[in-house]
Each structure stands twice: as structure tokens, then as C-alpha cells.
Amino acid sequence: MKASITLLFFFSLFGVSLGAFRLHFFVNKTLSWQDAQKYCRQNYDDLSTVGSKDLEALSSNPLIKEDYFWIGLQNNRNQWIWSTGEEARVTFWDKGEPTILLGGNCGGVNKNTFKASNIGCNDQLHFYCMFVFELIVIHQESTWEEALLYCPQHYLGLAIIDSKDMMVEAKINSTEADTDDLWIGLRFLAGSWFWVNGKGVDYKAWSSNGELQCPAMNQRCGVYNRAKEVWTPTDCVRRLNFLCVKRKYIN
């Protein structure tokens, strides 16, 4: 059984990882960096890749008893890289870090300062693992309901674009689409718009016409318009490309 709890779901959009978003899991056990990496790769995708805006939320976990916790940061021949092999362009080092420390070739986060430090790799610390996801364009023309069925059969589900960062992700991954409008998991039923995971629409990116409070029957499915980078309501029986969510790494 995985000794972990889901903490939060958020983006880390930076460097060569642009276009990926991550779900982080806190693992309630203490291991060396290498053993933590092994554990994450066996049970998730890898040790967590993070951005500066993620650190406060990760550090606020009351289950972390030590001053530091591991993330997927390591020094490889005087170059800091992520556990996934990508270059780590770290902008959130703690003051005076990284230090020239014998054996300090692994990266952790100081939970008190929300900053990174280099730490001896054999230290026994709690850590975060991650699953990594991305959006993918499906180059077939389907109705909204056909897209809704297709995505979970082949990937994880129809895309939910419920934040500014998700809009960036949609922009990046829709450039090769064959249609300007792409189906997303946005639907109007029973008097309100909602996402296919059951959540209401808090973040909004509607076109200039605004959110339709009582749309006509042929305006009750949502699309992402890649030319204008907005959502628009449209007829559910139109045949369009669509965006699914998929795992970036499969173990």
C-alpha cells in the first residue's frame, strides 16, 4: 500500500517542462534521496518536479516533521537536473545555496523558508512523488458526446480547462488541431454550466459574448477556440477535434 496522501493538484509550467501539469503526493515515510526516487518510480511517475509557486503549499503539510523534505532535484556533474532528466533552472534557492557541501548533491526544500537547499543524499527525509499529465489533440471529428466517450476509453478523460495555467496548456497543445474549435469537458445541464468531473465553473474564459445563462438547445456544449483562446458555447452535434488528458509517463 502506498504510504501517501494526495495534497493538491496544480501546474508547474516552466523551463523545458512547459506544457506538463502535475499531481503531487506526499509520502509519509523517510528515505534517502535515491530510495525515495526508486519508491516514486515504482509507485508513481517520479520524484516531484516543482516550481517556486508550489513550495509554500507543499511545505505547509503538517505531516512533515523535519525541517526539510526531498524533491526531484539532483546535482549531476555540477549541473542541477530533475529526476526526470530535465535541466533544473532553479530560481528558488535559499540564501547562500547551493553550497559546496561534501555529499550535498541532492535537493530538498526548507519547509520554513519555502526555498531549496542542497542536502546530503543519504539523509532520511519525507518526500513528494508525482504523476505527470498533458493535453493531447485528437485528430478526428466527433460530436461532444462521442468525444466524452472516446477520451476515457483511450486516455484519462475529456479536458477540463479550469485555470489560467490550463488555458496556457490548451494553447500549447492545440496548435496542430484541424479545427479552430475543440471540444472540452464543459456542458450546460439542469440550469448551469459544469465540468464533466462534476465541478462547477469558477474560473471563466468565455468569449466576449459572455457566459450564456440560459443557452438555446443548440448552444449547450463548450469548446476551446484556439484562434481566440476563449471558450464558446456551441451545438453538441458539431463534428470537431477535441482535447483529452493523458499521462505523460507510463511506467
TrEMBL record:
Transmembrane segments: none annotated. Gene3D superfamilies: Mannose-Binding Protein A, subunit A. Residues 24-130, 125-245 form the C-type lectin domain. It holds the Pfam family Lectin_C. This is CLECT domain-containing protein. The lineage of its organism: Eukaryota, Metazoa, Chordata, Craniata, Vertebrata.
